[in-house]
Structure formats: structure tokens, C-alpha cells
Write a structure and sequence with these properties.
Layout (H helix, E strand, L loop, with lengths): L13 E7 L2 E6 L2 E9 L5 E8 L6 H11 L13 H13 L36
Antiparallel strand pairs: 1-2, 2-3, 3-4
Length: about 130
């Protein structure tokens, strides 16, 4: 069985926080990772993974973090990196460069939100989309 240790006392074992579209903080058990998408041109990008350890970690904690880090990511034992999905999206957008793409998170209704938070959906160009 995979070993872990209680680091923060909150019983949370999985947390992925997208800070910006190209910057993600990830914690899976004790493996803490920073993922960065680095554009390299209109049809290329690189996905950088930085695994974090801490100066105060014991050798056993470092070993546990490294073992957990091997489970996910670009060469993960149990899950492929979802960065390959970014490549699929990038190729699809290139093939439909005259079209608009819309990403709606949580559906298309905002009736339950306060008036100040209601905004029209925007296309890639930043122009409002007329339905």
C-alpha cells in the first residue's frame, strides 16, 4: 500500500488549484507540484513540472514524496498527464481559426448569482457572443 503522512491535519489528500490558465498548484497526498504551461509559438508549448520538497523533511518524508510523484505526471504509473489534452485542443483551434470557442463552466445559467457577478460569456476574441 502507498505510504503517506499527515502533513497539515486537514485530511485532504487531493487538491488541484488553477491559479492562472498556465499555472497550476497540485497536491496529491504528499506530492506537491507546480505545473506551468510555457508557450513556444503559435503551435507549440512546453509543460514544466516542478516537484517540491521541503528543507525540514526527514529522509523518510522525501522518499514518500518521490514515490508518490511517480504515480502521476508525464510518465506516471497510474495516470497520464492531462497536458496531452492541451495539445488536442491546440490542434483543434488551429484547424478552426475562423471560428469561436466558448468554455462554459457550471452550465449556461447565472440566475442564482448576485447581479454584480453576472457577465455575458465571451469568445476567444473577447467580444460578447450573441446567442
Amino acid at each position: 500500500m502507498l505510504e503517506s503522512f499527515d502533513e497539515f491535519g486537514d485530511d485532504i489528500t487531493l487538491q488541484i488549484l488553477t491559479v492562472f490558465p498556465g499555472f497550476v498548484l497540485q497536491q496529491i497526498f504528499n506530492s506537491v507540484v507546480v505545473r506551468q504551461i510555457v508557450p513556444c509559438g503559435v503551435d507549440k508549448m512546453e509543460l514544466h513540472w516542478t516537484y517540491l520538497g521541503f528543507e525540514g523533511d526527514t529522509p523518510e518524508q522525501t522518499k514518500i514524496r518521490l514515490k508518490q510523484a511517480n504515480l502521476v505526471g508525464p510518465a506516471g504509473f497510474i495516470s497520464m498527464e492531462d497536458g496531452c489534452v492541451g495539445n488536442f485542443v491546440q490542434r483543434g483551434i488551429k484547424g478552426a481559426s475562423q471560428e469561436f470557442a466558448v468554455l462554459e463552466m457550471g452550465g449556461d445559467s447565472v440566475g442564482h448569482l448576485p447581479v454584480a457577478l453576472r457577465r455575458p460569456p465571451f469568445g476567444v476574441s473577447g467580444r460578447p457572443i450573441v446567442k
